[in-house]
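From the shared-data thread, chain only:
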Amino acid sequence: MKRSYWEKMADRYNEEIFDVRRQDKKALITKAIKKYAEPSHRIIDIGCAIGKWFPVLSPLCKEVVALDISKANLEIARTTHTKLTNITYLQKDMSRTAAKLPVCELGICINAILTPTAKDRRIFFQNLARCIARKGKLIVTVPSLESYLLARLLQREYKIDASSFPPVASPQKGLRYWNNLLQGVCDIDEVPHKHFLAEELDLLFTKAGFTPLQLEKIEYTWNTEFNRPPRWLKTPRPWDWMMVVEKN
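Structure, as tokens:
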């Protein structure tokens, strides 16, 4: 995603952006962080936004490196978390090759790899490898393409929230949707976001110099996908992928 998008979004972040930490009812991400964090560690929060994970990270380590593309996000994070004194703020674009990055023993990257551009994603993964120390761990969550397709299949089959899913307006728009979908790029509120297959994620991290250790579904309720989900629709639930990887 472009920097301008996040700068404009900063003041409305709590209202507009999905809160993964709050919706992770099983606290799988928090458990993974606590499993791998040590008091001597530097932990980098890649795509930290307004700092929702700082209260989890700060007590567990020597230093939190808060990295985000948006200056406005970092300013909100800084003013919100003044009592957390071990946070260093760093404005960087992870999809740029010139980014100068610190090396940390543990990293988290929570739904930050969203750019629809394949070249930018390749650079992002290269930069992930640059900022994690050898044998260091990285905890990543990404939108699931399997979950997106399941939700769209159910919506069409059972006419859920029909007015919110109108037919594609033109052949040109339909072709754009189709070409994007073939790359795992799906619109959320008319903004293209990259979604990932589980096997794709495994391959990307392996190619970037990591060893995948753990793959989990971060499950949500169907209210996160539909305004009025049917009462009978319980499981399977929609989900994001969480992967824990180790730097080679």
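The mean pLDDT is 92.
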